[in-house]
Amino acid sequence: MLKLFRRNAADYIRANIVAYFFMILIFVIGIVIGAMAVKTLPDEQKIELVGYLRVFFQGLTEQPAGIGNTQSLLTSVIGNNSRLIGIMWLLGFTIVGIPFVLFMVCLRGFVIGFTVGFLVNEYVMKGLLFAIVAVLPHNFLAVPAILATGVAATTFSLMLVRRKHHSKDNLLYNSIAYSVFCLAMLVIMLGAALIEVFVSPVFMKLVAHLIRT
């Protein structure tokens, strides 16, 4: 069973290697743009963001995590992650949805690039350390899931375009396979949400103490 899964996964990646390369490129472009955007921020906005970070660090180090707050945060994160995968899934059923899928992937990269870039720009190595513990753990699962969903959505959308000229593709079978794949990516995103809510804050709190000293 495991060998069959590995073989199918390898075949899938080989068949979509170009799409994955292009999707990763779009994501990296978003990261670069986000990091460069930090340099273009007006001083007033930088001061506001630094003030917000100080309040955030203070609350992170002084306030104990409550069950109600954790549940509220978990609900919010799960809702955002589910919405993202759901929208990308729906866009895959539209022929004109490809640019929007690419934009969402690029936007995710932009947010990560801007967050890391701003923290490093303001706090240097301490900021880099905080960015690693705050951004990396959950995105270790979330980013591959988003990229894979983006590839699936674009390839399915392109299949719909080709189907106009070649009706050999089984639309029902492809739709079910596409939906099941997106559902699997949603499960991964739910795992990322659990890490973001229960794991990342533990390390963020430790590093926040370091930044405030």
TrEMBL record:
It comes from the Bacteria. The keyword Transmembrane applies. Coiled coil: none annotated. InterPro entries: SpoIIM (IPR014196), SpoIIM-like (IPR002798). Keywords: Membrane, Transmembrane, Transmembrane helix. The chain crosses the membrane at residues 12-38, 84-103, 110-135, 141-161, 173-195. This is Stage II sporulation protein M (SpoIIM). It comes from Sporomusa ovata. The lineage of its organism: Bacteria, Bacillati, Bacillota, Negativicutes, Selenomonadales.
